[in-house]
Automatic annotation (TrEMBL):
It comes from Frondihabitans australicus. InterPro entries: HATPase_C_sf, HATPase_dom. This is Signal transduction histidine kinase. The chain crosses the membrane at residues 29-50, 62-82, 88-107, 119-145, 165-186. Pfam families: HATPase_c.
Amino acid sequence: MSLRESELAPVPRRRGPLKPLTRLSIERIIGRSVAVFSVVFGAQAVPFAIGQQDELKQPWGAVLAILLFGGLLLTAVAGFSARLVSTITAIVPIMFVVALITWPLSVSDPAVVQPAPPWLWFICNIALAAAVVAFSPQVTAVYLVVVPAVYAVVRTTPSGGGADVLHAVLDAVFTAILGAAILILAELLRRASDGADAAQAGAVARYAEAVRQHATEVERTTVDSIVHDGVLTAMLSAARAFTARDRTLAVGMAEASMNRLASAAATPLAGSGAVPLTLVRDRLEKTIERLALDAAITPPDDAGDIELSGEVAQSLGDAAVQALVNSRQHAGDGVNRWVSVTGDNGVAVIRVGDDGAGFDPSVRSERLGVRVSILERVAASGGRAEIESAPGEGTIITLRWPHEIPAARDTELDD
């Protein structure tokens, strides 16, 4: 016995949104890192700043300390709160340059060699790190060159401790290298996050396009089904209406066709939320009575308590009706026709069968009644349609939702 079925892999359920490495998250990490450095190294520099106040002109020495340490405190607050980070963080590198340039004029006697380097040395790296956050990479690169060079010059003056040139240059190079490492690391993280953002945007765009194409395909299948079920089938039935029962079927289908064309759907289930399988069964029973299809249908209790979405219920119901109409048109006279609506371990199963003429499903057929109104319609809703038939042995059409292929049931249709 040949078997022909149409399947559509189910659309995977969307999980919770991923949290990619975005530019915003990287900027927050960098800002909070600078905030931590501001607190740790700022606290380390406080004793040295207090110890050198006697050697500085007042109140300028105190003003410099207040402005710089106040800037560090504001930078820490901004970094941890993630608010106005780049604006507030700019205070520290700007004030550091001002303090560094004016340092020779800040000491009480510029001609006297100071016993220790300026306390600014202890927050130099913080100023460079803050520049990475506050300024563009180009401006920061210039800052990393200029500030260490200015510090080296100040360090060789008496007010800077009168260090020899080699010692001052080594201090400046060390500071520049550390600042460059911070800048390079920050830029690498930023570029990686930009790449992640671009990849995410591309994935979202591809997903949207896939959804659009899927919606277009579903709409095409729906339109084809409406045209076939409503118009072509009614016309074919009318052309073959040689008996009173055939005329009753043709008239009923024509009325349903006009109603559906007028309202785009005749009392649709789609969009009505959760629909119990028993309601699908009841509508099939009413359709059988209205179109005089002479088919026995299972009791309502067999349907169980399975619930479907409105769209799925509409698709399964319409496909089952089309299977009944096909049976009425092609199975022959005097056949037994039946419909079963059951729930099988959470799977909605609708079977439409007859003991009529049957056909060979292995032979390719372009009839829309099977291909569009049954196979494609059920597949588009995420289900599966199976056709079991052979010449002279009747036909059984099985509709399942959701789509699944249990290993234990692979031979079900061969029993």
